[in-house]
Write a structure and sequence with these properties.
- The structure is a single chain.
- The protein has 369 residues and is an alpha/beta fold.
- The chain has 9 helices and 15 strands.
- The strands form 3 sheets. A 9-stranded mixed β-sheet has the order 5-4-6-7-3-8-9-10-11, sandwiched between helices. A 4-stranded antiparallel β-sheet has the order 12-13-15-14. A two-stranded antiparallel sheet has the order 1-2.
- The radius of gyration is 26 Å and the shape is elongated.
Length: 369
């Protein structure tokens, strides 16, 4: 039709002279719009992390040293809904001034949501239309997925479409809380449609021995991946119940991400001894009848010593220097939390096993000293 505006415009690379800066909610981590996923194992602290994240947006205060644009935050709590008031009270008790600056901008709705449903989406939008959020947190994907199947591409595509539509009227960022699959090394649970659609992916991991947790960006559509922050969960006592027992919750306490590497990396004889233990466990490890099942496979210390000598090409079991080197290495490994012992048996520390209690391949774990 004559005079109509063209639907499409052809542009050339030479036209792109101005550098476009991304609009952010939390600089370097979340854009002002888009879709993100925060995922981690159960009890990894991902919901506490998301609430802490939201409170900083609500307060407009820097988060882990990153600039933050202030805005309203809405939490849809389908999981752990009964504990939300306690979590918010814990923040207030731990940091009252910070809480007072955030709480008027932080709202939540509890219930069983089906976010693949137009009806639930429209009801939520109507409820907060006069208080539009800058950040919408959905906890969790699984409990807001309705009767769909997460592994089905069509169901996941429908869910992504609907939650994006939920955030669209407010031009806000939508953050999903999610879980990893059965094989955690393969990332999030469900259809790959989800990861393809999101702008930011953040994994929450924890060190079982020290209780230290990290949040790491593993996908960033318009930025760098690999950024990591560390945090701990600090217990806050809220009061007592009818039996006089303490009621507690937790708050997030930032720590340096580098402090998560609290154990020294084994070198020299300690490194050789640890590799020898893994070799011995692979060849001779067994469950000791009177040991707890959580111990897993163990070997006799003499078997470990033989593997240590064999790896060094030394067959002389009576060598005094070899015994001293081995003893010092074993002591170092135990003091730094790599191994555990009882009587004549030794095994790999539980903190160094995977989620199924298995000892991972060590061939390249300490490739450099």
């Amino acid at each position: 039709m004559s005079g109509a505006q063209p639907r499409f415009v052809l542009r050339h690379a030479s036209d792109a002279q101005k550098v476009q800066t991304a609009r952010y909610l939390v600089k370097g981590w979340l854009g002002s719009t888009g879709l993100s996923v925060v995922y981690g194992e159960s009890n990894s602290g991902k919901s506490f992390f998301a609430i802490d994240f939201g409170f900083h947006v609500a307060a407009g205060e820097p988060w882990q040293g990153r600039l933050v644009k202030q805005g309203r935050v809405l939490l849809l709590a389908a999981e752990g809904a009964a504990g939300i008031p306690n979590r918010l009270k814990a923040i207030k008790l731990a940091n009252p001034e910070f809480s007072s600056r955030a709480e008027s901008n932080f709202s939540y709705i509890t219930g069983q949501f089906d976010l693949r449903s137009d009806t639930h989406r429209e009801e939520i939008c109507a409820l907060v239309r006069d208080q539009p959020p800058a950040l919408l947190i959905i906890d969790t994907l699984a409990l807001t997925f309705g009767d769909g199947l997460e592994n089905e591409a069509g169901d996941m595509a429908q869910y992504v479409k609907q939650v994006s539509a939920l955030g669209a009227p407010f031009n806000c960022h939508v953050m999903l809380i999610h879980h990893p699959g059965k094989d955690a090394s393969r990332g999030m649970r469900g259809s790959s449609v989800l990861r393809a659609a999101i702008d930011t992916e953040i994994i929450i991991e924890t060190n079982a021995r020290h209780g230290i947790r990290t949040a790491k960006i593993t996908k960033q559509r318009e930025g760098a991946t690999g950024q990591t922050v560390g945090f701990e969960l600090e217990v806050v006592e809220l009061g007592t119940d009818e039996d006089g027992d303490p009621i507690t919750s937790c708050v997030v306490v930032p720590i340096s991400a580098t402090s998560t590497q609290r154990r020294k990396v084994p070198t020299g004889n300690a490194k050789a001894a640890l590799q020898a233990l893994h070799d011995a466990l692979e060849a001779h490890g067994r469950q000791v009848p009177h040991f707890p099942a959580a111990t897993g496979n163990a070997v006799e210390k003499s078997t470990w010593y033989e593997a240590f000598l064999a790896n060094q090409g030394n067959k002389n079991l009576k060598s005094e220097s070899s015994r001293k080197n081995f003893k010092r290495a074993a002591t170092w490994l135990e003091e730094n939390g790599y191994i555990e012992t009882q009587g004549e048996y030794v095994w790999v520390s539980s903190a160094d096993k995977d989620n199924d209690g298995h000892v991972p391949d060590m061939s390249d774990k300490f490739a450099t000293d």
